[in-house]
Amino acid sequence: MQLNLKDKVVIVTGGTKGIGRAIVSGFLSEHSRVYFCSRTPSSIPHATSLFLSTHHSSTIHGSVVDVSIPSQLQSWITEIVEKEKRIDVVVSNVSSISVTDTEEAWRNGYETDIRGTVELVRAALPYLELSRGNIVTISSVSGRDVDFTAPSPYGAFKAALIHYTAQLAHTLAPKGVRANTVSPGNIYISDGVWGDIEKNNPELFNSQLAKNPTGRMGKAEEVADAVLFLTSERASFISGANLVVDGSLCSGVQF
Ligand SMILES: NC(=O)c1ccc[n+]([C@@H]2O[C@H](COP(=O)([O-])OP(=O)(O)OC[C@H]3O[C@@H](n4cnc5c(N)ncnc54)[C@H](OP(=O)(O)O)[C@@H]3O)[C@@H](O)[C@H]2O)c1
To answer: Which sequence ranges form a coiled-coil region, renumbered to this chain (predicted)?
Structure first.
């Protein structure tokens, strides 16, 4: 299947680790021009050299941006547009992963997951309208099922992201901009969230692993492939979807 993502200008938040890193790598494999961010300055050159070691001569650019700070997001988008003159795809991947029921966690969850996505879309939208581009938000199965993360802001804000993305899909369809959500289930990455839980809370790890009817957790690349497909012309009539990538972890029927 030809995705035809070559030379598309793609922005991914949180690309130095985990699912974001796999999404960046996926777009680089398609020869897209990829811009990613994270908050940790030292992680940017490290991730960039890893990307370049597997995708020689790719256009890849990392920046230190905290998505919970709207002025940083705005400057980042302005910088990219000054250089590229266009934006084709934005992937809002970052979450504060706030799984405690405290005032601080609710504030962080709102500022990072919700405001971080809304401000990213607001800044990029004029350019996405010009390119008839694509928005993908990364939610979670915790947004559709009440799971081990409850009670906390995590699932509540992930559900809000699915609704917000559907609103974008509906209101932007006449302008040719598509918006979709990808909702991963448990995704195992050795230096990621489930790798940490495996080391520090093996009981939780084993109980969650046992809930996966496939007998395994997902791979970051399996989530990235869903994102790439949705942003490609192969998905030209798909907008407002919530694509659950969970190996059938959720047992509820999604209508
Ligand atoms: N892993 C799973 O099993 C799973 C399951 C369902 C949904 N998800 C969703 O998938 C997305 C990615 O999760 P992940 O597991 O890949 O996370 P991760 O391994 O913790 O990676 C998060 C990435 O985002 C960056 N980041 C975090 N906060 C940021 C901020 N405020 N501004 C800019 N960058 C920031 C991190 O770098 P710095 O820390 O250096 O900033 C890192 O590059 C999240 O939306 C998560 O809710 C994950």
So the answer is: none
